[in-house]
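#struct-help
A.M.: can someone run this one for me? Single chain, 154 residues.
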Amino acid sequence: MKKILNNPWPYAIMAWFALAITGMVIWITVAVRNDHELVRKDYYEAELRFQTQFDSVQRTKPIRKDVAVAYEPSRESVTVKLPASHHGATGVVHFYRPSEAKLDRKFDLQLSEAAVQELAVKDMKAGLWKVQVAWTVNGVQYYFDQPLMLAGTQ
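D.P.: on it. Structure tokens below:
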């Protein structure tokens, strides 16, 4: 008597198609449920904020030579200098850490009569930071940013 051998290939092919179809159904379900809108819900408000910042940057261009952010390693401080006529400015100095958002720091702008502010950075992590300075003088907004490399003890 001859023994009948079952060929495994038909079962393997059916299993492969079943897995492929299941994978496609799962992928389509995830793709349909995922919000893929490129437009934000607050699109117009965000556009207005962007335009406001763009205008602030444009207003800063003529006085750019009088605006400076400098790191002084010996004193472990960053000096922010604005034009002398802006000594009464109000605003914010934002230290933005591209690699770790939780390390971001904000300082209120408190300028001296010479329109200079010194900020202690000895407790801030060494590495690349982006310093963003936004200030207002007589109702007019200005904005300046600059990358800064801090060398620290941490």
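A.M.: thanks! The chain has a mean pLDDT of 89.
D.P.: also worth noting: The chain has two helices and seven strands.
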